[in-house]
Each structure stands twice: as structure tokens, then as C-alpha cells.
User: What shape does this take?
Amino acid sequence: MIEKNLKQDEIDALFQAARSTVEAGIGEVRARVLPYNFSSAGQISTDQLRAISMLNDLFARNLTHNLAAWLRTRFQVNLVSAEQIPFTEFLLRIPEINYVASVRLDPLGAVSVLQLDLALAPPIIDLLLGGEGRDGPLRELTDIEESILGSVVEMICRDLTVAWQGVGLSFNFERRQMQTQVARMLSVTEKTLCLSFEIRMPHSSGLLNLAFPAVVSNTILRRLTTDWSRRRRHAGETRARMAETARRIRFGGALQLPSVRIAASAIENLEPGAVLRFDLAASTLAEWRVGGQLLAEARAVRQGGLRAAQLERMETGTSQ
Assistant: This one.
């Protein structure tokens, strides 16, 4: 056996190398340590945000369609943000002149806060009173104007109920709340789920904000995450079977001429054999509609002993 006797400078070099390795390891560990912000606890996860966005995109589309048809004007609603913030921060976002209403959430029995920018009130009220929807000065509402705007909020609540029926919530408009009453609806330190929607009209725009208390936000976020996770776990075979089943669904369809307006005098004395003239060119194609939705323009033809439709031109946006 050969013994190796180390000199003092060699021993010092070994200790120095070991000390450097330990210090480097400590520095590496320290570099990975980050301060924790307890106020960020319970923030919306990616899956929850995705599920909330899908749910409220449905609400935005429904409200866009229903209010545009009711007001007979262009009306666009888009989801802007979904975040968890203290109720005191939500209160700071409410402008001085505002419209705030309490909305009861059944069956939980909780109350949420709905805030609508009053800049949207003049054009909406003007449209409902027969005007052109012009913008107006920002001011407090009269009793009649508040009643009219209340009917709009009731429609918003109905569309929210339709969109959120998957989590079992029903939105019921209670009443408008004054500025001094809003701060007492929820604890100022309570963390709320805040949803913001942008509303655009031809002559005005503004925000629709909703604040849900913690007991409601925790419940709906848990249900949304569970439902979203279940949807994501569908195996490829299950999805294929669902798609095959969907292809066997039968829809009502019709091959018909475009809609026309006919004078009452033209149909007053109709009888078999009479010719009813339409204000359509002889070359006008019929419309192929499925479930009331226009899919293509077509001609009525015969295929063997059956009637058929020969498609001529697909509607824009319809897959060929």
C-alpha cells in the first residue's frame, strides 16, 4: 500500500474547494427562494379563467342578440376581464354618478352587485321612447327613466340566468341601490369575483360590471373547474362516438322562396287555380334552410321518384 502524505498547501486547497462548493450550493438555493404574497392566494387559475370566459362569452352573445333586437340598433357586448379583487377595490371603480343594483342569486340566497355606466342610459332610453339613440349629458335619472333602465337590467339578469344555468344559479333583479347603500352590501375586505363587460352602441359605450361575494365565487369556480376537467378527460373514442351520434340527429329543413310582402287585397279572394304574383325575378333561386338557418341557395329538382334540392351557392360562412 502506497501512502500519500499531503502538504499543508494541498490541504488548504482541498478545504478551500469544499468551502466554495458549499457556498455555491447555498447561493443556488437562495436564488430559487421568492417572497410569497398572501394576497394572491385563491387567485383564478388558468382552467377557471378559461371556463369563466366560455360561460360569459355565451352571455355576451345572447345579450348582444336580444338587446339589439329589442332596441332595434347595433349593440355589442364583450367580456373584458375576470379577476378576484377585494370589494373595496370594486367600490373605488364605481364612478360618482352611477347605476348600481342588487341582484339576488338563488338558490344560494346571496346578493351580487351589478354596476352599469350611466353613459349608456341616455341612448337606451331614447331608443325605447322612439328616438334615434342619441347620446346625452351624464346626469341622475328621473323616476320614469329609472323604471325604463330597470327593465333593461331585468333582461340582463334573464340572459345571465340562461348562460349560468350550468352552475345552477338564477339571477333576480331586486332594486337600484344608492351610493351610500352599496358599501354595506358586502364586507369591504371580502374578496369578490369581478366580471367586466364592454358595451358598445352607435353613439355611446360603457362598462357593465358584476361583483360576486366570496361564497358565490368559490362555489361557481369549483363547479366550473370540475365541469371543465370532466370535459377535458373525454377519451378520443368517446368524442368520436359523440360525433357519430350527433351526425344522426335529424333537423327540420325547407326549400323555399325568399320572404316577400303581399298586399292584403291580393290574398283576400284567393281560390284554387289562382296565380299569386311575387315581386321576385323569375331567376330567383330558392333558399335551403335547416332549423330556420339559411345554408344555401338551391333549385328544386327530381331524383328518381323523389324531390331533391340542387345546391347552387353556399351561404357565406357555411362549410362546403
Remarks:
- The first strand starts at residue 76 and ends at 86.
- The chain has a mean pLDDT of 80.
- Strands lie at 76-86, 99-106, 110-116, 170-177, 191-201, 204-212, 253-256, 286-290, 293-303, 306-314.
- The two ends are 87 Å apart (CA to CA).
